[in-house]
C-alpha cells in the first residue's frame, strides 16, 4: 500500500477505536459509573532475525488492547481485554463496574481535572509507515551482518535484527475528551563476537527512528558493531580506586533516568525518594539544565497529551541546577497536594543542556579515569540515593583510551554524583526519549580486583 492508502487506513482504524471508546464510556455511565476512561490500541509489526547470512526467525505481530477504568464516586475498578468483539467488551464493562463497587474509597481517585484536557493537537510528524516484504527485511539484515563480519578480527555473529512497527491509540474519558495518536518506529541492530576462549567478547549497535529516512547507513551500523566488539578484546579489571567517570551517552541517559524517577509521583508520595521536598533546591551545578519538550517533531517521546488526556507543555525540570518541579500525574499530584504536570505515564522528551565538546574533547576533560560504556545490575536506591552497579568500559590516560576494562563495580551516592557533574558533551544520542550527550562525573569509587 502507498502512503495515502496507509494514512486512510490508519484514520479509519482510529475512527473505529474512537467510536468504540465513546460508546463504552456511555454504557459504563449508564451502569452507574460517575466517571470512566478508556484506552484502546492496535499495534502491528514485522521483525526478522538473521544469523550467518540466513533468516533465523520471522515474526508478524498484530496486538489489540482495550482497557476501561470506571469510578463509582471515589471507588475505582479496571478491566481489560485484547478481544474487541461485542460480548468481550460487555464483559469488560461488567467486570470493571463490579470491581469498583467492592473496592475501598480513595480520596485521590478520579479522572484528571476537566480543564486540563488537551484542546490542540498539532501534527508531531510521528507517522512514517513502511511496508517492506519479508525478503526486503532479510536482505537488510544480511547487509548489516555481512558488513560487520567482514571486519578483520570478528570471529562469529549473534545476528542482525530489523523491525518495523506502527501503533494506533485512542484515549477517551467522560469529560468528553477523545485523543488520537498514531506513530511508527523502525529499528535495526547487530551483535557480533570477537576472539575465542577466555578472551571472547561481544558487543552490538543499533539504530531506532520514526522514519527509515533517519536511519544511519546500514553497512555503517554493522561496522560500528564490529568496532565496538573488537575494542573490548584484551579487557582487564582494575584495582580499587577513586577516579572521575565519563558516562557514554547511551549510559548517561540512565543516570538522568534515576534523577527523573526520584522526582516522579510514586516514590514521592510514598516518601521513598531522596528528592522529597527538593523543589526549589539546587541539586546540580549552576549551569546544568533539563527541559521537557513534548512537541519535538519525530521525537521518540513526543505527545500532545499524557495518559490522562492532560495537555503536555514544554517546561524546565532543572534550571541553573535547581529542581523546578516534580513529574506528576493527577493521582500522585493529589496525594502530594499539588497539580498534575501532564506526566501521567512518564516524561516525554527530556533535553539535557550541553556544551560544545564532542566525544574526543570530553575524553580530554576526563584526563585519566574511567570511560563507562555499560552498566549491569539494579543496585540503585531512590530512597537513599546509594548507587552501585556492575560496569564495563575503558581506562583512559591523558585523554586517550588505554585499554578496555570489565568485571568492575562503580559506586557513589546520586546526590554526590549529580552535584559533581563537571560537563555534558555535545555527542547527543537521539535514539531515546532522553536526549543527552556524555556526562562527566568528578569522582566515583571503582572496585575490581
Automatic annotation (TrEMBL):
Q: Which GO terms describe its biological process?
A: proteolysis
* SUPFAM superfamilies for this protein: Putative modulator of DNA gyrase, PmbA/TldD (SSF111283)
Which intervals hold domain Metalloprotease TldD/E central? 128-231
Q: Which residues form the Metalloprotease TldD/E N-terminal domain?
A: 36-100
Q: Domain named Metalloprotease TldD/E C-terminal: which ranges?
A: 240-448
Q: What are the protein's UniProt keywords?
A: Hydrolase, Metalloprotease, Protease
Signal sequence span is: none
Gene Ontology cellular component annotations, sorted alphabetically:
cytosol
Q: Name one GO molecular function term.
A: metallopeptidase activity
- Reading the lineage from the top rank, the first entry is Bacteria
Q: PANTHER family, from UniProt?
A: METALLOPROTEASE PMBA
| Annotated family | Belongs to the peptidase U62 family.
Q: What is this protein called?
A: Metalloprotease PmbA
Q: Which organism is it from?
A: Oleiagrimonas citrea
